[in-house]
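It would be a great kindness if you could assist me with a short task in structural biology. I am sending you one protein, given as its amino acid sequence and as whole-number tokens for its backbone shapes. I would ask you to consider whether the tokens describe a fold that such a sequence might reasonably adopt. The full record is reproduced below for your convenience.
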Amino acid sequence: MDTSRPVAEIMTRNLVVVKPDATIDRIHDLFEANHFHHIPVVDRNELVGIISKTDYLKIRHMLATTWSGETICQDMYKDMCAADIMSREPLRIESADTIGLAADIFKANALHSLPVVDDGELVGIVTTHDLLTYAYQVTL
């Protein structure tokens, strides 16, 4: 596997993103309808955060187990938005950065996705799945 190749060659370009004010129901629907595990949060094409499926499920679990009243739980859930559950200022990479650098960042930080940002604009996302797919195709 050539780890000196740019992440632009393996990243996903057609992204599903949400704005910071996206509802939890919208986030739920996106995770249910798609096979991805990360949703970038953008404001005016600028990356402001990322929501992992794990982040989302932790919030659902916390609300379900912390509050005894169903109405309180539903009201809190209804009032939450992407900005409330996203990881702010996520680590990011540029499209010209190498696949090897992405792998090193994943390993050092126990991450599974890196937004790809060029000149301040979100242009893609690279995931550990992308790396595995690339490595597997190269070794065949």
Notes: The chain has six helices and five strands. The CA atoms of residues 55 and 120 lie 24 Å apart.
